[in-house]
């Protein structure tokens, strides 16, 4: 089942995944433009761009450290804000609304990459 995709079909699962990641990188740029501390968001953007490069075969993502860093950052936020249980109505502030757009686009990109992984081999990270 896991084979290499050799062409870039504009409607294919590979470009759907890469396009969703690209969209997330763009929305993260919007979020970053509204924040004082931009470093963490930029680090995520760069990792996502490397992941896209790996998916299309242009680069090899070496993101194990990035995954560990991100998991630690998630734990820090959970400790500060608590775990969200249930639905959250977005849009309390502009930044909050942009964060929720990033979250939902990220979830879509994740679903697209999972669909892609059913057709080609994708790094588990």
Explain this structure to me?
- This protein is mainly alpha-helical.
- Helices cover 65% and strands 0% of the residues.
- It contains four helices and no strands.
- Helix 1 packs antiparallel against helix 2 and helix 1 (13-34) packs antiparallel against helix 4 (94-117).
- The longest helix is centred in the C-terminal third of the chain and has 24 residues, at 94-117.
- The radius of gyration is 16 Å and the shape is globular.
- The protein starts with 12 loop residues before the first helix and ends in an 8-residue tail after the last helix.
- The relative contact order is 0.19.
Question: What characteristic shape results from the CA principal axes?
Answer: globular
State the secondary-structure class.
mainly alpha
Number of helices: 4
**Strand-and-helix sequence, N→C?**
HHHH
SSE topology sketch:
Elements: H1 13-34, H2 39-55, H3 64-81, H4 94-117
Looking at this protein, list some descriptive labels.
mainly alpha, globular, single chain, 125 residues
Summarize the structure.
The protein has helices at 13-34, 39-55, 64-81, 94-117. The chain is an all-alpha fold and 125 residues long.
